[in-house]
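Request: Could I get any protein with tokenized structure?
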Amino acid sequence: MKKCFELIIKDSITSCFMVHIPAENKAKALKYAEGNGEVVSCKEVEWRLGRDCVIDALVKSGFGQTEVDLIDRLLQEYHDYF
């Protein structure tokens, strides 16, 4: 199962943003973030994204049942992430 890393990236003199990246290790998370600015912080965090949360967000966003079913099926196939 992959871990989740929280990265804080400085992309200009006054602007930073945070991103959560699922990766096998810290080096792969940092590699993924290359080219987006200077990584100020990188720490492992608890993975909090669940299948039910994703399905609920899709339904609330107006996705049709067919799309929701397809995405749900993909989530079930890649259960190591969820």
Remarks:
- Strands lie at 3-10, 16-23, 38-45.
- The first strand starts at residue 3 and ends at 10.
- The longest helix spans residues 65-77.
